[in-house]
Write a structure and sequence with these properties.
Structural class: alpha/beta
Distance between the termini: 37 Å
Shape: globular
Order of helices and strands: HHHEHEHEEHEHHHEE
Bound molecules: S-adenosylmethionine
CATH architecture: 3-Layer(aba) Sandwich
Number of domains: 1
CATH superfamily: Vaccinia Virus protein VP39
Helix content: 40-55%
CATH topology: Rossmann fold
Strand content: 15-25%
């Protein structure tokens, strides 16, 4: 299979198309586990009062909501470039703040102005990973934290996941773009050790790492 087209327009359009079924389908392909994994990854973070937080590539807002419920966040915003994903998030969580924006360029945010940035299942969809990592580094305060969560190791369990979950996706979407895209984007995404090097090259320091589901999914917490 050739490389997937990850131009921002294509990605945003694809997520907009699946926005209404995204949550239901996420529950199906993760066997209902994705919320638990997101909570557990957030549990790796150090919290203090009045944190300013950005949840990048927030999609329909799962992570934004979990963070808001910690009560440590004085200012939290979910950012995504698909206005349809944002609209689903805003309907699910009317009291929370969401806005359209691109994780690779955040001109509204000053240098060293944010305490915590999270990105769950987002970086894999960004063509220019380096720009996204650099931009988060710029916006985070010194000592600020970045939580990254996404697919991890391409091991035997990942192969089994592909067979089961991806078959489910195929049944849900047919042989259409979202199905092909998920498989290919997983294949092209670096494994955690390689990804950690990409973060370290931009100045981040790895603080914690935790694998879920035998390494199929991996979380890393970095310090700026
Ligand atoms: C797989 S979803 C993850 C959503 C959510 N974080 C979750 O864990 O359920 C990926 C999201 O990233 C968004 N996205 C991809 N590239 C982006 C970018 N450069 N800037 C902002 N959002 C982006 C997509 O629109 C999509 O909503």
């Amino acid at each position: 299979m050739t490389q997937v087209d990850k131009t921002p327009e294509k990605i945003s359009e694809m997520f907009s198309e699946i926005s209404k079924s995204y949550d239901k389908n996420n529950n199906i392909i993760s066997f209902g586990l994705h919320k638990k994994i997101k909570k557990s990854a957030i549990g790796l973070l150090d919290f203090s009062d009045n944190m300013k937080v950005l949840d990048l590539c927030c999609g329909t807002g799962d992570v934004t909501e979990i963070l808001a419920n910690t009560k440590y966040t004085s200012d939290i915003c979910g950012i995504d470039f698909s206005k349809d994903m944002i609209s689903v998030a805003q309907k699910r969580f009317p009291k929370l703040k969401f806005k359209c924006g691109d994780a690779t360029t955040m001109p509204d945010y000053k240098n060293s102005s944010v305490d915590l940035i999270t990105m769950a299942f987002g970086l894999r969809n960004i063509n220019d990973r380096q720009s996204a990592i650099k931009e988060s580094y710029r916006v985070l305060k010194n000592g600020g934290q970045f939580l990254h969560l996404d697919f991890g190791y391409k091991n035997i369990f990942s192969v089994i996941f592909n067979l089961i979950a991806i078959t489910a996706i195929k049944l849900l979407y047919g042989n259409t773009l979202p199905y092909k895209y998920l498989i290919q984007s997983k294949k092209e995404f670096p494994e955690p050790e390689e990804l950690i090097k990409e973060f370290e090259r931009e100045g981040f320091k790895l603080k914690k790492k935790k694998d879920f589901l035998f390494g199929i999914i991996s979380a890393q917490v970095y310090n700026r």
